[in-house]
Amino acid sequence: MTVQRIIQRFSPLVMALGISFPLGSSAANGQVPAQAVLAVDDDRIKQAETEPGNWLGYGRTYEEQRFSPLDQINGETVARLGLAWRVDMQSTRGLEATPIVVDGVMFVTGEWSKVYAFNAVTGEQIWFYDPKVPREWGRKACCDVVNRGVAVYGGKVYVGSLDGRLIALDAATGRLVWEVNTIDRSRDYTITGAPRAARGLIFIGNGGAEYGVRGYATAYDADTGAQVWRFWAVPGAPSKPPENEAMALAAKTWSDSTAWELGGGGTIWNSIVYDADFDQVYLGTGNGSPWAREIRSPGGGDNLFLSSIVAVDATTGRYKWHYQTTPADNWDYTATQDMALADMEIDGVTRKVLLQAPKNGFFYVLDRATGELLRAHNYVPTTWATHVDMETGRPVENPAYAYDSPKWIVPGPMGGHNWQAMSVDIEAGLVYLPTHQFSLTYALEEAWKDDGVFQRVSGQFRLGIEVERLSELVVETPDPPVPFGRLIAFDPLTGTQRWGVDQPHYWNGGVLATQGGLVFQGNSAGYFNAYDAATGEELWSFPAHRGFLAPPVTYAVDGVQYIAVLAGTGGGAIPNGDAGPMARKYRNEGYLLAFALDGEASLPMPEERNQQIPQQPVIEMSPAQAKAGERLYNRHCAVCHGLFAISSGVIPDLRMMTAPWHEALGGIVLHGSLKLKGMPGFADRLNEGELELIRGYIVQQANAGRAQAEVNEE
Ligand code: CA
């Protein structure tokens, strides 16, 4: 048994005896206990196991296993679990953040990168900081205006804003200490990921591969905001010398010298993990930009460092090793999913390993010293590759699934697992993993096939696969894979599932496991559930009437254990027009929920939606005009308002437009009259004639929806 395990075992005893030292203290009178918060540093995070009452970092500890030693809430007591307090987050967008809890204070983010400090016992707000993200930046965000949380370090709270700033706030007051711009503001970069902190540095990446950017992560001095290093994920302009040896190495794996103009991708938008054992940082890199490799790198090549786990020196950012999960990515298979660090006995030897389930459907176990591949088992079905060859360390692609013609491929762009956190129970040898299947039909872009011209367009999805014809292809391509959502207890060494729980919908929340033998997860059907970690049996369920994406955390103050989680769906489900049944039925009113034994608070029901599509104006359109309207809609509108003009519920459903909205449509779309509400103008991309074609398509879809509703009534 490791020292950490002994401490973990010991701490519940300490808790039972009422000794308050490791369990945190309360935030008296709504004030942040400044001394305690100031004291969060590397040593404290490294010894996080000695204070299980706190949740000090994104994945709780530097190892990011998201497994808590707290066990007051357990299989015996969980039936008494109830809502202790809740906070209305004044949000209708996706909520994805991991709350950080330090000495009775909770730091969490909401929509548009807003930052909050709450008393973790009462939910009382201590301070609030709004970075005032320009709302038109929403057009650059593929997957909602979400934020996955803060880092708390050295008396400051750090957040990355959607519009690419890294912001340092005073942990005690929420006042701005410094902010730096981390991006080229002329390109479509966004930040949604949580910063990480170690070695006096703050690490942050960014997203935007779907819009044509070059990915990277940067380390900033925690005190001053000065840039210390930057690691580029893919090569830049070949006319300039490569930034470093890693870029020289990577450039050899790209065959087309103009690929860099399209962005290249590899965006590091979620997982950045510090490893104290090797003083290195792991960067999880994203998909290629554009997705289609034939366009991105026509002559072939692996396209380093797309879809990779890259280890760099923490203090210098120098490349140490990499493992590419998906060479020559062709499917939006990011390796940005959460990474957990562990010591595991493998084939009789204790190894320091890294665990990740990237989008591509295989669960990887790597040696952290060298990047050596130790295991790669399917955690969901894959059609793009048959298996990972353990000799070469490479996936074996299935040529039958090349998409020169339209094809359903699994996993789809949502992956078999996405950013929603997993939890690692090392003692049990299991990973509790939220998996799903939801596919799109991939087809190489016809326009590019015709003329070989592919251009990046600012603020527009450019993937290299058919976006304009997507709604047609979804209907026409045979054998669509059946979507599923499934929480599994997965053995990463054998690839077997100990148990699995099927969810009613594919897009569900992150996971928390505890020493209390429980696994917590919220789902898109609006339930927050506790499962028996040994069997998967559902032991407790709370109806929240809101879909969940965010991972729960647990903490303890004054001897009371809490489970906290954000409720509110959205995120990557928006483009599909399907964020689950709750988002359709109710207004997506986001809440922060905290549960404890014998909690007695209640949660207001969200406002029910009027789902009756109103009468539409009569618009005469030829079939050719209708088709043109559909394609324009798919190109410019669907990414937020949903394919088939059916909204996920998170963004307004355009089929619900009444006469006054139809009247206002020109002002909204062409002149940006709702810019401040997050709907920027599109005068740079659309003219009045095109808008009328789009309107015609929306009306057609609205009428189809009305007809369907009548059929359903009969
Ligand atoms: Ca992507």
What's this, in brief?
The protein is an alpha+beta fold.
Describe the structure.
It is built from 12 helices and 39 strands. The N terminus is likely disordered. It has 714 residues and is α+β, with helices and mostly antiparallel strands. Strands 1-33-34-35-36 form a 5-stranded mixed beta sheet, with no helix packed on it. The protein has a 4-stranded antiparallel beta sheet with strand order 2-39-38-37, with no helix packed on it. The protein has a 4-stranded antiparallel beta sheet with strand order 3-4-5-6, with no helix packed on it. The relative contact order is 0.11. Bound molecules: calcium ion.
Bound molecules: calcium ion
Which ranges are low-confidence, i.e. pLDDT below 50, for 5 or more consecutive residues?
1-28
Arithmetic mean pLDDT = 94
Helix percentage range = 10-25%
Radius of gyration: 24 Å
Task: Report strand order across the widest sheet.
Answer: 1-33-34-35-36
Oligomer: single chain
Beta content: 25-35%
> What's the helix count?
12
E-strand count: 39
Distance between the termini: 65 Å
Largest sheet: 5 strands, mixed
Query: Any idea what the shape is?
Result: globular
Give the helix/strand class: alpha+beta
Name the features.
714 residues, four-stranded antiparallel beta sheet, disordered N terminus, binds calcium ion
List the helices and strands and how they pair.
Layout: H1 3-16, H2 34-38, H3 42-46, E1 67-68, E2 81-88, E3 100-102, E4 105-109, E5 115-119, E6 125-129, E7 151-153, E8 156-160, E9 165-170, E10 176-181, E11 196-198, E12 201-204, E13 216-221, E14 227-232, H4 245-251, E15 264-265, E16 272-275, E17 280-284, E18 288-289, H5 293-296, E19 308-313, E20 319-324, E21 339-346, E22 349-356, E23 362-367, E24 373-378, E25 385-389, E26 394-397, E27 407-408, E28 423-425, E29 430-437, E30 441-442, H6 446-451, H7 470-476, E31 484-491, E32 496-503, E33 511-514, E34 518-522, E35 527-532, E36 538-543, E37 553-557, E38 560-567, H8 581-585, E39 591-597, H9 623-636, H10 638-641, H11 659-671, H12 688-713
Parallel strand pairs: 1-33
Antiparallel strand pairs: 2-39, 3-4, 4-5, 5-6, 7-8, 8-9, 9-10, 11-12, 12-13, 13-14, 15-18, 16-17, 17-19, 19-20, 21-22, 22-23, 23-24, 25-26, 27-30, 28-29, 29-31, 31-32, 33-34, 34-35, 35-36, 37-38, 38-39
Helix pairs in contact: 9-12
Bound molecules: calcium ion.
